[in-house]
Amino acid sequence: MRLLLLFFLTAVAAAGPSQRIRLSDESAALPGAAAMEPAPSSETNGADEMPVMPGWPVRTTSNPNFSAVRGVALADFDADGRLEIIRPTTGNQVYVWRYDGTIYPGWPRALNNMGQEAAAVADVDLDGQYEVCVNTRGMTTGGSTYLLTEAGTNKPGGPFTGPTNGTLSASPCLADVNGDDTLEVIVTERAARALVHVLTFRGTELSPAWPCTLNAVPTGTPSVADINLDGTMEIVTYSYDSLYVFRPDGSRLPGFPRAVANARFSYQSSALADIDGDDTLEIVAAMHRDAAGCCVFRHDGTLQPGWPYGFPRWTYCPPTVADLYRDGDLKVVCGLSGVIGGAAQVLYAFDDDASVLPGFPVTQVDGDAAEGNITVADVDGDADMEVLFSSNLMRDTLGYLCAVHANGTPVAGWPLRIYGFSYLNGMTVADVDGDDSLDIVAVGQNGGSGMEVKVWEAGVRFSRASWEWPTYHFDMARTGRYEKYTVGVEEPPRRPTERPSLILSPNPVRPGATVALGSKQTAVGLYGLSGELVLAAPGPATALVIPGNLPAGVYIARTAAGGRSAAAKLIVR
Fold first, then answer.
1. Could you give the C-alpha distances from 107 to 87, 94, 95, 536, in angstroms and in order?
2. What pLDDT is stored for residue 496 in this prediction?
């Protein structure tokens, strides 16, 4: 921490062509502040042979001292088969762009403070529409949690502010903690006390058991899954000193909190996956300070055999889990900090026993760090997985986005280039424009000159077979729960690639009529043209009963499943 604080206080933006960036540690008095310094570089300008999608990149204003991190969120708001791109800014706004780079109606939305980390997106209250969840932060106070409609308006009860007005800088996690099908909002607050909040979609604590207290400042986004197969979801989160696992009632799972001697956790978010094949889930974490490295914990707090693996330098990288060889055996991928001057090994891949995979660690010739969230996907169409990672190096105002094959060798046509630093911003892969091909979305920021969002077209087929870990914290709800690709199951319910079908019959109808939905739906909402909800049918639903007093007019029925939504027009006479 001492080196980083000194770095922040003395570094200035260099006039030379190459610079490096770091963020101040989460234990610092002013966490998450950006600092730049001149950096010797032997890098070329990069191949960047991949075409950019029409309408991109776009740029916004930002705070010169705080960089946006953790990438973007994606969702199909208008059910047109193409994805909107969602990104908060440290300029106190949150943007939603259409696939073609134009602003979605109702956005950008002003925030009370900086939105430094990525948004989470899901249908939180089962109304058939997406909600956008964004956390904000000030310098040391002034944070809020926003739950916003597709139109950019606050959901009732929001925004949430913690009891001591602390910062809520990490991305939120959206998950059904208590089994009522609606999603809770799990956030951590840095305040006079370090707190974990579990909120309902109405902005209230789930129960009097919440918030729960941590033993040091919180770090990173919580993860949620039933890790011990007891039928109850667990919440996995960190303080700077310890790893915690909470039950929905606020009690701690036996074996937690868990510390590692001489190690600390900063900017960490656990990957939850069955590493050893026993059906229970392991917790994959990375550490820094004097015992930097990567750890795999069992659900009881004990270490998986062979772990931890020690790193020569610390890391802010949240580990990724992937079936890297598509042989059914999960691997752990993690990056670490670089060096100033000279080459450095910055990207590791491990087997389940912590043995290093052939071709790893990957060396960067200029020692630039690989501490952003890591994506694993087939970006060149060879049916094998590639590992995508960011850099803390910028040359001639352009940062670097890197990719290697599963054997650690560089991918042809990379690195990609983006305006500003890509540091702590990984890539998201998806079919943004609905053409069944893979697109890559990334974020860069160049101090006070602004933030850039850019979309490339990889020109290879996109499907569930195309990726293993597609975005920060695995999914747009930011649960951190790895889900395995199954051969023959092209699109699992969590993946936003297929829209549900919504066919209304009869149509038009009169008030009091029953309208069939064509198939069983998880939930359906009926909305006026101004966006107001006039009827909600919880799932499973096969029909809507139109209220007898509903005025004649045109209404929109909406449903959602698997991260996608569908809409249909209903005429009431």
1. 11, 7, 6, 26
2. 40
Q: Report d(CA 191, CA 187) in Å as an integer.
A: 13
In the chain, the amino acid numbered 284 is V
**Among 169, 136, 132, 124, which Cα is nearest to 152's?**
132
Q: What tokens were used for 68?
A: 């946006």
Cis-peptide into 508, omega within 30 deg: yes
Minimal CA–CA distance to 66: which of 109, 115, 124, 16? 115
Residue 500 structure tokens: 């549900």
Contact indicator for 304, 313 with CB cutoff of 8 Å: no
Give the Cα separation of 420 and 427 in Å (integer).
15
Q: What are phi and psi of 488, to 5 degrees?
A: 90, -15
CA distances (Å), origin 91, targets 111, 169, 445: 9, 14, 12
pTM for the whole thing?
Answer: 0.82
pLDDT (mean) for 216-232:
95
| Separation between Cα atoms, residue 306 and residue 326, nearest integer Å | 23
Q: What's the pLDDT tens digit per position in 402-424?
A: 999 999 999 999 999 999 999 88
CA dihedral of 427, 432, 437, 438, whole degrees rounded to 10: 0
Residue type at 414 in one-letter notation: W
Distances (CA, A) of 183 to 38, 129, 237, 417: 45, 13, 18, 37
| Beta carbons of 181 and 210 less than 8 angstroms apart | no
- Take residue 214 and report the two structure tokens written for it: 């941590």
